[in-house]
Structure formats: C-alpha cells, structure tokens
Write a structure and sequence with these properties.
globular; 397 residues; 8 strands
C-alpha cells in the first residue's frame, strides 16, 4: 500500500509542477494547425477604443509619483484614457498628491473598506468599454495599453491577461530569485493555456476586461483578479494572454513577506475552488475544466500536501526494506529529495545574502511556498483569513 501511495503522490507532484506545463505545450502546439477564422468585434471608428486605467491604492505615497509618470508616458492617446484612482482609507497624503493632476479622477472614502469595495464602487464610474486594472506599485511597458486591447478585436475574448515581470538584479536574494523564476514558468504556462484554449485567470498587476461583463464581487473575496477573470470565462468568453503588455515590480523584501502573500493567495485559491465548483464539469466547460483543474485546483488543494508526504512515504518504504542499495529507485529518489531539501536549507541560511549564484534559492523558494500554501489552505478552512489585504513589503528598486 505504501508503494502505491508513493506512486500516486509522485504523479501528483510531477504533473502539477512540471508535467502540466509539458502537456499544455504539446496541446498548444497541436492547436497551431489551421483553424477557422474568429469573428472580429466592431472596431472603434478612431482606430483605438476608449479605455479606463483603473488603480486602487491604500497609502501608496512612496510609489504614486512613479506610477502616475509611468501612466502618462504610455503609448496611447491620452484623450482616450480615463485615469481612475480609488484611494479608500488612504491617510498618508496619497489622495492629496493625486489631486494635483486634473487628468486623474480621484475617488476617495475616508473609511477603509477594502479593495473589493473600492473596485465595486469604482466600476460604477467607468465610462469606457474596456477597463485595464493595474496595481499602484507596478510600472507598465510603454505599449501596454495597445497590446492588451488588441486581442479584444476577437469578439470571443472577454478578458486579457498581461504579463508580470520581476525586476532583475545582478545580485539577488532568495525572494527575488525564487519569485522571478516562478513568474517565468507561470507566464509560459499562461501563454500556452491561452494559445490552446483560454488562460485560467489573470494577475492583478495588469489585466483588462470588457466593462459590460463585470459583475459586483462579494465583499469577502480574497483574490479579486482571479474571481473577476474566471467569472468572465464562466460566461463562455476566452481569456487571452498578451505577453508584450507587461507590468514590472520588485520582488518581496524577503521570503517572510513573500510567505505572507502566498499564504493569502492559497487561502483565496481554496475560496475560489469552493465558489466555482461548476467549472470542474467538463461536460459544460470542456477543455477549460481540464485546464482549471490542472493549473489551479491541484496546486491549491492536493499538491502541497503531496510534496511533503512523498518524502515521508519514501522514508517509510526504505525503513521497511533497509537492505536495499542505491540502485533501487526508492533509495535513489529518497536521496534526490534529501539533497533538494538540504539545498533548500542552505537557501534559508543564505536567504538575505545577495548572490550571483541564484540556483540555490529556487529549491528554498519552492519548499517555502508550498509550506505557505498549506498554511493558507488551513487558514481558509478555519475562517481565519481576512478579506482586507495586509500589504507585503517589496524590495527597493
């Protein structure tokens, strides 16, 4: 029984973290064969549609100037952009600073009621047919708006996910090295998902939707970006991926801050699984159900537990057969895991060192983030995860 359990766990871990990326790459490659043309959406007479650049902010005075300057430099007609900032609860001067710019529509409430309330309130003020959501601490690529709006020419596209990039440094810490590697892999999977059928969700740093498709989201929602985008997919629309529309931000200040963020995301992932059980029905949603289960559900539910149980079960198998030598697969695989955990431990000891040799940090980041996932799952099931964000500190530019 232990050996059967071992192989089940091994399959889950390998498929979730490596296998699905390979499978979706194969499927996307097959899909590159000739397909019937898509039905184009109605074009704006001026060539470029009106858009709303929507930003929510809570006490972001240290980054707001860079964000505003970046927004004004975007390669898109300014008369077609509605700059909308929601600053509910801010009391550090963010609102007052923004009000110096007449181009920006600033909507403020003195009471902090959370990002979800700010989004629901702000969407009532959007005048454009497309909304581009972006975080206040991210800088957008010069052609971000053009690139993220272009896929909407296809009328089947209801949401477009931009790409998140972590600012590179020659000397990185564990947080920046691990997070940078994670987002490179995640971006590849999203691109393959979209090429094959539809991306599965979008990241809040940069994504766009058709305004008409938005519905207010519950106030206790933990992952607003994922819920907004997945709801649209649930309506039968596709989520496109625009890698040339990207948002750049610095990594978390340290692994402790990244753990805080990942724990919340894991709790939000569990919440999403409970809120969208219908998306697991392949008879209704077809390939999207397969993608959703493989890309998100496994990672948010079973895989983190499977990763750590795999090591324990492997050890128990060896304990029952101590005479096995290194040529035995169970012995070999156990020592491979042990080496990776030792490397992760080394990464922990060197966490805040700025190193050029960054590979040592990747196992540490991987193990730490799976620990955070388990913590987030338990926190959600116990009802201990608050809906209002506790901001994670980011490293300095």
């Amino acid at each position: 029984m232990a050996e059967i359990f071992f192989w089940i766990l091994l399959f889950l871990v390998v498929y979730t973290y490596v296998g699905y990326a390979f499978v979706i790459w194969i499927l996307a490659s097959i899909r590159q064969l000739p397909r019937k043309p898509v039905k184009p959406a109605k074009q704006d007479p001026g060539g470029m549609p009106d858009v709303c650049l929507f930003v929510t902010a809570y006490n972001e005075l240290d980054v707001v100037e860079l964000k505003v300057q970046n927004s004004f430099k975007l390669n898109y007609p300014k008369d077609k952009i509605q700059y909308l900032w929601m600053t509910d609860g801010s009391n550090d001067g963010t609102t007052e600073w923004l009000q110096h710019y007449p181009e920006i529509q600033v909507e403020h409430l003195s009471e902090r009621r959370g990002k979800i309330h700010a989004i629901n309130r702000g969407m009532q003020l959007v005048k454009a047919p497309f909304v581009i959501f972006s975080d206040s601490n991210t800088l957008l690529s010069e052609n971000a708006i053009q690139e993220i709006i272009r896929p909407f020419q296809d009328s089947t596209i209801g949401c477009v996910a931009g790409e998140k990039r972590i600012k590179k440094k020659d000397l990185d810490t564990a947080a920046s090295s691990g997070e940078g590697f994670y987002w490179k892999l995640e971006s590849f999977i999203k691109q393959m998902d979209a090429r094959f059928n539809s991306a599965v969700g979008a990241a809040g740093e940069l994504f766009a939707i058709r305004t008409a498709l938005y519905e207010d989201i519950p106030a206790d929602t933990l992952l607003d970006d994922f819920i907004i985008s997945l709801r649209i997919a649930g309506k039968g629309y596709k989520i496109a991926y625009a890698p040339e529309a990207y948002a750049v931000e610095t990594a978390s200040a340290n692994v402790k801050e990244e753990l805080k963020r990942k724990t919340r995301i894991a709790a939000g992932g569990m919440q999403s699984v409970f809120r969208f059980p219908q998306l697991l029905n392949p008879f209704q949603f077809g390939w999207l159900s397969f993608q959703y289960f493989s890309h998100k559900v496994l990672r948010w539910t079973i895989a983190p537990f499977a990763l750590f149980l795999l090591f324990i079960i492997n050890f128990l198998i060896l304990a029952e057969t101590p005479t096995q030598n290194l040529s035995n697969f169970y012995t070999f695989f156990f020592y491979c895991q042990l080496v990776l955990y030792l490397i992760a431990g080394t990464g922990y000891l060197l966490e805040n060192r700025h190193l050029r040799f960054k590979t040592v940090f990747i196992p540490y980041y991987f193990v730490a983030m799976n620990y955070a996932s388990i913590k987030g799952i338990i926190r959600y099931l116990r009802g201990k995860q608050p809906a209002i964000w506790e901001k994670s500190k980011r490293s300095k530019v």
